[in-house]
């Protein structure tokens, strides 16, 4: 019932009015939020206003404040920046400016304001709310407003959405725009890396982040940079020596390039800024590399928003309106944020106070506190980076003896599998363990086809899509797999893949009693575009797939602007899981998603047909249905195309596209690269501790008991989880190959609202 429509107010009563503005620096995904705010307000019989140019428009009023219709926010999801403009406004900082702003809202009956911006914009909004009673008093005295109006709008409610590429607001794990900025950075690193490796150059890359190292930190984890500077945790005074030692060590291991990533606010422990030029000079003078500097600047703010940012903007925007609609009366200002994959509401001023205490902590050299203030996700990401960059032999821990870890990939390829292989190998060899990679899944293990994976052989894999080891769907031949693992003296196995990897691993674990060679730690690393693996909220590869799908839909929708009046039926992968069709539909602005869980019936098609007839007779020129490949065995994509085309009453034509293997994407997205690294490092850490624990002193072999040491690595919130495979069984639907509980239901409800679907169907 989350997005259930409120009843229509009786005729003659004033409608509630919502206004939205974007302020401070622009960020990708702001448009998605504006679209959702306007549409959810209209859907609930409220007036929706857009305030153009941020607080400048609020202060100036007039044509800066525009009443919005449904179609005014069409076609903006795929655009970067903010179509309603943003600005910095000195006048709003002073009382007279804010008083003018208040009058502009009162004149239009608006007392619900949603501000999308950074901490400055949200601080201004909070002040505006606190001063509201004073504005009313002053305006009444000036006779600028009536007593009735002052009573009716005796308070203003504020909700903040954080639009910031820096991801610098404490209390939320992510801000609207940060993922797209990270994508631009990672794409730039991919481009730089190929030229750098060709010439054996070193690059110093400066990314945005005055007080926040999020972009630099995540870019370093995603790309495997050699050295990173973040403001929250400066290196020691000897950073030049330590950095050059690290770069030298990696070159000696065979790496053909070096990459240093620095946040623009990089400084040393005494607070003195470190410039890219100083870093270059240190590398030049010590290592005599050919070193270049790239400052990415505004490139990071550009381009189409990623799926993550579109969904974050959309859901936070919709939730902001819902929050104000369902909380009667005056409410404390809040921010719509996110904790892992859960949407949360946080008190606005508390989160701003925490945010503003980060630079204070940095200035007073409380670096551990600065990192902590950024939240538990940031803390663990900083630890992860340290772990990845501890190639220094003095950091190495061997434990009882080096172990031999085998990796195999199972199921269909997913972008990020290579990045997972790379991270697992780096983490293992840095602790002196060895890694072999079996080719082509369980078949390759059975046939004994493998290669040794070394630091150098995997060092360039972070940005490669597909799977270098090869992967296939076959279930394991238990006897042959056990024989092979024994022959190659494998101490632990990492299976990278989707549902097949999980069921295959389970089969191996259940055969342990008859096969001593299988009594080794077995870890599943979830990687599948369908995101249908139990025990994790996110599988490696699904974010890349979503972005590939949405890029295709953007392109297909664009074609409709020339061909006019067209319904597209787009078929996606995803097996029996509705995650891909629903999430991509929400991010691409599609009208409908057909999922295997809900199926398709004749009555669905009739309702949808009427929906399209109505929309196209009102002047729509494009509509999209995203159909999951297994939504129905009868109403296939060609059948739906034919039915809609036949019954369109010449209002539109219908075409279909089956996206097929395009969905695997070319290079992995930052989200997939980062989760693959986190999962892989967790696999290796767990394996090493389990192997040490289960090492039989007499035989010197690893012997785990029963179903011990068999885990699915996963993501829950921002935390990495390890769930025993046997525990997952009761949460798995083995027939449909999906987890019993899924996360995309809210997205599906919202899709109906934003596609104007329920708008019509409720009205009937
Ligand atoms: P970014 O993170 O991109 O810098 P921001 O929202 O922090 O975004 P600011 O320039 O700090 O950007 O603020 C944007 C606008 O918000 C200012 O131009 C001003 O109009 C308003 N504003 C900021 N701080 C205050 C304040 N303390 N009181 C009143 N208004 C403010």
UniProtKB/TrEMBL annotation:
GO CC terms of this entry: 6-phosphofructokinase complex
Main location: cytoplasm
Alphabetized UniProt keyword annotations: Allosteric enzyme, ATP-binding, Cytoplasm, Glycolysis, Kinase, Magnesium, Metal-binding, Nucleotide-binding, Transferase
Reactions catalysed, as given in the entry: beta-D-fructose 6-phosphate + ATP = beta-D-fructose 1,6-bisphosphate + ADP + H(+)
Top-level taxon: Eukaryota
Pathway: Carbohydrate degradation; glycolysis; D-glyceraldehyde 3-phosphate and glycerone phosphate from D-glucose: step 3/4
Gene3D superfamilies: 3.40.50.450, Phosphofructokinase domain (3.40.50.460)
Family that this chain belongs to: Belongs to the phosphofructokinase type A (PFKA) family. ATP-dependent PFK group I subfamily. Eukaryotic two domain clade "E" sub-subfamily.
Protein name: 6-phosphofructokinase
Species annotation: Capsaspora owczarzaki (strain ATCC 30864)
């Amino acid at each position: 019932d989350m997005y259930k429509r409120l009843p229509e107010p009786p005729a003659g009563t004033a409608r509630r009015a919502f206004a939205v503005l974007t302020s401070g620096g622009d960020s990708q995904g702001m448009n998605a939020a504006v679209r959702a705010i306007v549409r959810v307000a209209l859907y609930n019989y409220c007036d929706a206003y857009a305030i153009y140019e941020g607080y400048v428009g609020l202060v100036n009023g007039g044509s800066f404040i525009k009443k919005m219709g449904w179609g005014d926010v069409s076609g903006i999801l795929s655009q970067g920046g903010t179509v309603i403009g943003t600005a910095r406004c000195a006048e709003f900082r002073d009382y007279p400016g804010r008083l003018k702003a208040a009058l502009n809202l009162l004149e239009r009956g608006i007392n619900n304001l949603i501000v999308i911006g950074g901490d400055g914009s949200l601080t201004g909004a909070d002040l505006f709310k606190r001063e509201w009673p004073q504005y009313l008093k002053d305006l009444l005295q000036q006779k600028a407003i009536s007593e009735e109006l002052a009573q009716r709008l005796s308070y203003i409610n504020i909700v903040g959405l954080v639009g910031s590429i820096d991801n610098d607001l404490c209390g939320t794990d992510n801000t609207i725009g940060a993922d797209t900025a990270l994508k631009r950075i990672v794409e730039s690193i991919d481009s730089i890396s190929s030229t750098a490796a060709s010439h054996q150059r070193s690059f110093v890359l400066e990314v945005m982040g005055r007080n926040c190292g999020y972009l630099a930190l995540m870019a370093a984890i995603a790309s495997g940079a050699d050295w990173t500077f973040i403001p929250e945790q400066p290196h020691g005074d000897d950073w030049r020596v330590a950095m050059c030692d690290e770069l030298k060590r990696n070159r000696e291991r065979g790496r053909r390039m070096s990459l240093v990533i620095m946040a623009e606010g990089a400084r040393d422990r005494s607070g003195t800024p470190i410039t890219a030029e100083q870093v270059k000079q240190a590398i030049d003078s010590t290592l005599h590399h050919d070193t270049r500097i790239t400052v990415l600047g505004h490139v990071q703010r550009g381009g189409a928003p990623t799926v993550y940012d579109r969904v974050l903007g959309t859901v936070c925007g919709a939730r902001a309106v819902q929050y104000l609609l369902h909380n009667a009366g005056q409410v404390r200002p809040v921010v719509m944020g996110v904790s892992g994959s859960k949407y949360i509401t946080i008190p606005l001023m508390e989160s701003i106070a925490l945010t503003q205490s980060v630079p204070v902590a940095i200035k007073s050299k409380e670096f551990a506190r600065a990192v902590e203030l950024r939240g538990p996700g940031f803390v663990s990401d900083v630890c992860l980076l340290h772990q990845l960059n501890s190639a220094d032999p003095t950091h190495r821990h061997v434990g009882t003896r080096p172990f031999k870890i085998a990796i195999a990939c199972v199921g269909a390829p997913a972008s990020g599998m290579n990045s997972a292989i790379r991270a697992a190998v780096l983490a293992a060899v840095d602790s002196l363990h060895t890694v072999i990679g079996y080719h082509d899944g369980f078949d390759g293990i059975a046939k004994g086809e493998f290669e040794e994976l070394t630091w150098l052989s995997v060092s360039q894999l972070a940005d490669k899509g597909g799977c270098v080891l090869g992967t296939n769907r076959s279930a394991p031949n238990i006897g042959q797999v056990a024989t092979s693992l024994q022959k190659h003296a494998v101490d632990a196995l990492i299976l990278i893949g989707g549902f097949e990897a999980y069921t295959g691993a389970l089969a191996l674990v259940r055969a342990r009693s008859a096969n001593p060679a299988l009594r080794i730690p077995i870890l599943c690393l979830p990687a599948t575009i369908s995101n249908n693996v139990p025990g994790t909220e996110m599988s490696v590869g699904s974010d890349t797939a979503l972005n590939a799908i949405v890029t295709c839909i953007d392109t297909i929708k664009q074609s409709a602007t020339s061909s006019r009046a067209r319904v597209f039926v787009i078929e996606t992968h995803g097996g029996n899981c509705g995650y891909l069709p629903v999430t991509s539909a929400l991010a691409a602005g599609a009208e409908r998603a057909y999922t295997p869980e809900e199926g398709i019936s004749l009555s669905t098609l009739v309702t949808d047909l009427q929906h399209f007839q109505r929309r196209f007779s009102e002047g729509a020129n494009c509509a999209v249905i995203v159909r999951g490949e297994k939504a129905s065995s009868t109403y296939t994509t060609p059948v739906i195309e034919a039915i809609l085309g036949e019954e369109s009453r010449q209002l539109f034509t219908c075409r279909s596209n089956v996206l097929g293997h395009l969905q695997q994407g070319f290079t992995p997205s930052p989200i997939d690269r980062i989760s693959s690294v986190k999962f892989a490092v967790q696999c290796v850490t767990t394996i090493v501790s389990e192997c040490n624990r289960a090492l039989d002193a007499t035989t010197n072999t690893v012997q785990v008991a029963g179903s011990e040491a068999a885990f699915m690595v996963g993501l829950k919130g921002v935390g990495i989880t390890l769930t025993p495979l046997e525990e997952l069984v009761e949460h798995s639907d083995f027939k449909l190959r999906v987890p019993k509980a899924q996360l995309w239901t809210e997205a599906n409800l919202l899709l109906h609202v934003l596609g104007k679907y329920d708008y019509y169907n409720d009205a009937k």
